[in-house]
Amino acid sequence: MKTILEVKNLSVSFNTYSGEVQAVRNVSFDLYEGETLAIVGESGSGKSVTSKSLLRLNPRETTMIKNGQIFYHHKNILDYSEQQMRGLRGAEISMIFQDPMTALNPTMTIGSQIAESIKKHTSLRGMQIIERVIELLQLVGIKEADKRYKQYPHQFSGGMRQRIVIAMALACEPRIIIADEPTTALDVSIQAQILELLKNIQKKMNLSIIFITHDLGVVAKMADRVAVMYAGKIVEIGLVDEIFYHCQHPYTQGLLAAMPNPDIDSESLYAIPGTPPNLLQPPVGDAFAARNKQALKIDFLEEPPMFKISDTHYAATWLLHKQAPPLLPVHQQLAQEKQKEREEKPLFDTNNPFLSLKEVKQYFKLGKNTINKAIDGITFDIYKGEIFGLVGESGCGKSTTGRSIIGLNTITDGTIQIDGQSIYDAQTKQEKLAFHRKVQMIFQDPYSSLNPRMKIADIIGEGLAIHGVPKSEWKTNIYELLDIVGLTKEYANRYPHELSGGQRQRIGIARALAVEPELIIADEPISALDVSIQAQIVNLLKKLQKERGLTYLFIAHDLSMVKYISNRIGVMHRGKIVELAESQELYDHPIHPYTKSLLSAIPLPDPKLERERQRIIFDEVKYNANDRANEKFIEVRPGHFVMLTEDELMQYHQTSAKGILL
Amino acid sequence: MTAKITEETKHYPADLFELASQADIVSDIVHRPEQSFWQDAWRGLRKNKAAIVGLCIIIFVILLAVFGPFMNNHGYDEQNITRTNLPPKVPVLEHLPFLGLNGVDGRGVDQYEKKGITEYFWFGTDELGRDLWTRIWQGTRISLYIAFLAATIDLIIGVAYGAISAFYGGRTDNVMQRVIEVLVGITGLIVNILLILILKPGIISITLAMVIVGWISMARIVRAQILKLKSYEYVLASRTLGASNQRLIWKHLIPNTLGPIIVATTFTIPGAIFTEALLSFIGLGLQPPTASLGTIVNDSYKLLRIYPHGMIVSSIIISLIMISFNLLGDGLRDAFDPKVRK
């Protein structure tokens, strides 16, 4: 294979207010023609900085390239003038950004945005440019391109916009595309479409792609080779199968173990303890040592060199040194434990649901004549001590459901009962406070859910203050709560901005626990967190549930995590619950076409499986063509409800009678 | 790739390859004294040198404004035709000619000698022979009084109005904003002039005239901030804990609006001094013999080319007050923001 790009000993630092941040430390890798190299890492691991350095896109005032060379076609582009770089950007190497909502200029038509780089880099003029734009739009799968190229970005959906961004990147037939988390902001099914599109285009144009992501499922689907970054270094690099099935670095092993595998039923997730190091003062030795339970003494003294495992596979860990003791890798240890730990299915009191929603409707008035039916008649129960998962794509009404239950919105129609009492029964101040003691919420964004001007102690103590706990007891209560969520009492005196995302989310949990609630509504509590931290939070939530007999409504879009944590799952689509079943049942026998497509769109951290898998596409037009007005929520199997019309039910019965399990 | 493989064969002492005990893992916990929000803010402010300089100047000016007029025995309205337009003369400093504090005017004539005056007038005298030192500090006192009064009233009305309008939203917001728009529609100066014509010039009427339109910008700033903040998840979290509206506004919304509020207030104070000076300048402000920084500037600009001292001294004091309020405001904003504070 021909090497197209070669990075040698690249080190990049940023000058910040508090000192020099060594964002990238001595990184080397090659990129071959026609391959996809995935760079995986958590936020702050230096993966974005590395990729932006390839185009010299980092802010010039604060960035220092300390060391290293980047060879593109055997020329060091770090020596290029700004003018030469401009010739390279877009024409030879181009970039796809994370957020399609902000990557397009809202005041320009998409056609002229795509045409920009064509005008700059090619000799095409006039009509030729328009033809080229239309051709590109067709290539990325935009229908009626000859009409739509005159439209503005707001006339396209998120997934369509990302296609347009890709068309822009492809405009001058570049050799390399750097995709910086191109699907993180998208829903799973859109993500699957975009990934497939990228793969097809790569094949057609023999492109090299550098794919930056934190999602190992996406890596398994996309990558030929994988580089794992931690604390500004590449700790392991190899072919995708080598990384997923024979990884050597304890960090890679931990990351893989921390992903819930929907096919394995287990009680607790493996979680890497601690948080990534601060790159203002990078640790001596192996940066991962402080979080590694099996760290060797030498890990704290000397930095491990890159050990060669095979021609394509390298890892930087002392465990590969010939003197190292043989240790069982984390994920294999886990597999052994998992076999032991299976538990009996818990039993719930199904006659007296703790939370019960009946035909709940929540409409929002948008204008005089437009109404947004955020929730359109949903009915479900949650039993005491149960974890109920609610999944769906953005805009399906799952978060609104949570907010309506806790009373942040007043519902338009229907009843919500908690413990047999309607939530609107509470009239006096005392009754309202009693209601808030029963139900609490954990929020999605750990950055906006804590008041930046309050100390941690005051944030946790707010519930105590509101509910009239005497001031003298606050301190002990707060320390106890911090201890429960796995933080030390020193944190009480800090401000939120001094904490990492995972720590903040723990504070959010402690705040909710302060009033000793019975029901906790967790609104996407882990979607803003890094993979290794997600597992910590999920384990904490599960542990708390067991110890305190809590009931959860767990709202998320990540089906694999929901499947792992929940007893039962409801799938929401367009303000309705279309399928509801026990999590294993739902996973094994999805019936509703939407559920099927959702399940098949989740990328799994298993490259072999990913290669074989066929995605099921949800055909919205065909779905709506059936008589939707007459659909009913039908129990097709014990405890398994699906929203079906009569025709669909007949169809289902016919196929299942033939013995074909869908 | 070959360059990466180096010390693979190097030999290390065997004990380095033992499993590390937990003690080797250092935690990152920082101990910090327990302090209240205000203590933290004060600590942050103390570290900001510019803000402290500003604060010191403000305190110094206030002290002089209070005690300055008593430091000699001239009254602020004490006229004496025999000693008009004397340049400043200060004991000790009079021997440093480049400072211009030796009683010699622009034409090189020592007015004190010429008029046979043995007293020292530190800031000189005006065209009616009134001691400028007394008048200027008396004027500063009145200007600061008006400014603080106007700023406080602006602050109270503006924050309350903006907060209520944004927090309750819907129809309340709609009505309140239309009222503001009507007020904004009329030019501020015209409102001032009309009001003063009705109320007769005086400290209270000037303050009222400034307040009547002054709070609007504060109300708008606060409203914009709170509209943004009220959908933040920490506000929702507090609501789900059962917090009352009062608690939401005072504990969550206002503290997070402090930055813009402080900045706006520090602009209001110099602004008020300036408006008062402007009104006095066009003859609608305080009436003689009452002094304010504005009236002094107004009186002395006529003699600017021959006797510039009155103008220079009063302008310097106005500028000092404005700069130091801005410096202090900047420092306060940072001090109240835990993210900026180190």
From TrEMBL, chain A:
GO biological process, one term: peptide transport
Gene3D superfamilies: P-loop containing nucleotide triphosphate hydrolases
Database matches in SUPFAM superfamilies: P-loop containing nucleoside triphosphate hydrolases
InterPro entries in the cross-refs: AAA+_ATPase, ABC_transp_ATP-bind, ABC_transporter-like_ATP-bd, ABC_transporter-like_CS, Oligopep_ABC_C, P-loop_NTPase
Domain ABC transporter: 5-256, 355-599
Single annotated GO MF: ATP binding
Kinase recorded as keyword: no
Xref: CDD domains: ABC_NikE_OppD_transporters
Keywords of the record: ATP-binding, Nucleotide-binding, Transport
Family per record: Belongs to the ABC transporter superfamily.
UniProt protein name: ABC transporter ATP-binding protein
Organism: Lysinibacillus mangiferihumi
The organism's taxonomic lineage, starting at the top: Bacteria, Bacillati, Bacillota, Bacilli, Bacillales
TrEMBL record, chain B:
One Pfam family of this chain: BPD_transp_1
GO BP annotations, alphabetical order: peptide transport; protein transport; transmembrane transport
Domain ABC transmembrane type-1: 140-329
Taxonomy, superkingdom: Bacteria
Primary location recorded for the protein, binned into one broad class: membrane
Compartments, as annotated in UniProt: Cell membrane
Keyword vocabulary terms for this entry: Cell membrane, Membrane, Peptide transport, Protein transport, Transmembrane, Transmembrane helix, Transport
Annotated InterPro entries: BP-dependent_transpt_permease (IPR050366), MetI-like (IPR000515), MetI-like_sf (IPR035906), OppC_N (IPR025966)
Record protein name field: ABC transporter permease
Organism: Lysinibacillus mangiferihumi
